[in-house]
Amino acid sequence: MNSSHAMKSGVLIFLVALLCAESAQGLECYKCPPEGSCSITTCPYPDAFCVTQEREDSQRKKEKIRHCLSYCPTDYEGMPTQDPNVTMKTSCCKEDLCNAAVPTGGRTWTIAGVLLFSLGSVLLQTLL
User: Fold this and answer.
1) Distance, CA of 73 to CA of 84 (rounded, Å)
2) Is 2 exposed, middle or buried (0-12, 13-18, 19+ CB in 10 A)?
3) What angle do CA 31, 112, 21 make, to 5 degrees?
């Protein structure tokens, strides 16, 4: 194997490892209790969901929680409700920090990985 092939292989292995590194870390979700500040948590479940659940009572009082679960719950799972006038809304997603109050855009490493992959493919084409 000459040095040109070794360099091409090394660049390709580096790019694949960089792109796979983020998925190996696990899904990151916002964790927000009904009252208190939010934090970012890495889900311990292999096939996790970021979940947002909002409960509104008959007096229009809203309570919202964000967390990570191993499944996507129905509207009435996860938050206790005894009043028939209470409405529940649940949403689930499977991307990092997708349960934010506002869209967050892409993660830095995802964007960097895409850019490096693009750069790597250009480098491989020029080395061929």
Assistant:
1) 19
2) exposed
3) 65
pTM, 2 dp: 0.58
Residue-wise DSSP of 64-110 = EEEEEESS---TTSSS----TT-EEEEEEE-STTTTSSS-----HHH
Q: Which helix (H) or strand (E) holds 117?
A: helix 108-127
Q: What are the structural domains of the chain?
A: 25-121 (2.10.60.10)
pLDDT in tens, 33-80: 988 899 999 999 999 999 999 989 888 889 999 999 999 988 666 566
